[in-house]
Amino acid sequence: MNNFRVYSVALFVLLLLVWELAAKQMSPLVLPAPSVVAATLLDGVKTGYFWPHIVRTSLEVLLGLSVGSGLGLVVGILMGEMEWLRKLFFPYVVASQAVPKLALAPLFILWFGFGMTSKVVITALICFFPLLENTVTAIQYTDRNKLELFRVLGATRWQTLIHLKLPAGLPSIFAGFRVAVVLAVVGAVVGEFIGASEGLGAMIIASQGMMDTPLMFSVLLLLTMLGAVLYQMVHFLEKRLLKPYKKETGK
């Protein structure tokens, strides 16, 4: 494992060197050097220029992720438990997800305005489906032998759900949550592209207008770091919650 970490860091340094060398052959307008991007990033952080935009995008991501994931989990449990509900509504849910969210963004701006609400709605819609799909799958494919054991022991439907289906389905549910947390950043940025004066997505549009490529790269780095931090937080939470079940299964 330690060797892989060393190789990973070495690969990162090698990529930075290749980027630096490639940037020297091109105009800074096309490809700024990583040293220039790092200087722009540090300057923006020190002067406080980035912070209002980071806070705005982070709020949109967290609110959209909470609403979308919460609804996806609840609706997924209901659809997993009630076959008639799944057969009735699932085709409509799939059809709604087939529509590109970027195409819906102008409509949400029209309905909810240029404030934070429209971005939260777009983010929530993007986060909803991974949680729904993985929760339905987790509940549907619970071990038949364990279900039979709970039935023989006289467990109620609620007890079976709380003590068997949800704990057994946690790996699948968390897999959906990990996908949702990355997509949440995409959702917030898409909303800010269409109509916003504040946020990291709005900064990308502004830097494009000013032909400020180092600023654009700096914002892209901030978005990458935001997504990576959120992903690691979910991974940490997953490890803590699944630890007792891994001990039981000996994994």
Structural class: mainly alpha
Q: What is the CATH homologous superfamily assignment of the largest domain?
A: MetI-like
Distance between the termini: 17 Å
Instruction: Give the H and E element order.
Output: HHHHHHHHHH
Query: For the record, what CATH class of the largest domain applies?
Result: Mainly Alpha
Q: Any idea what the CATH architecture of the largest domain is?
A: Orthogonal Bundle
Shape: globular
Radius of gyration: 22 Å
Structurally, the number of domains stands at 2
Put simply, the count of helices is: 10
User: Into which percentage range does the β-strand content fall?
Assistant: under 5%
Total number of strands:
0
Indicate the CATH topology of the largest domain.
MetI-like fold
Could you give a short description of this structure?
With 251 residues, the protein is mainly α. It is built from 10 helices and no strands.
List the helices and strands and how they pair.
Layout lengths: L1 H23 L9 H14 L3 H31 L1 H16 L2 H12 L3 H25 L3 H9 L4 H38 L5 H10 L3 H37 L2
Q: What does this entry look like structurally?
A:
- This protein is an all-alpha fold.
- The chain folds into two domains: 1-30; 32-242, MetI-like fold (Orthogonal Bundle), CATH 1.10.3720.
- The chain is built from ten helices and no strands.
- The radius of gyration is 22 Å and the shape is globular.
- The chain starts with a helix and ends with a helix.
- The mean pLDDT is 87.
- It comes from Geobacillus genomosp. 3.
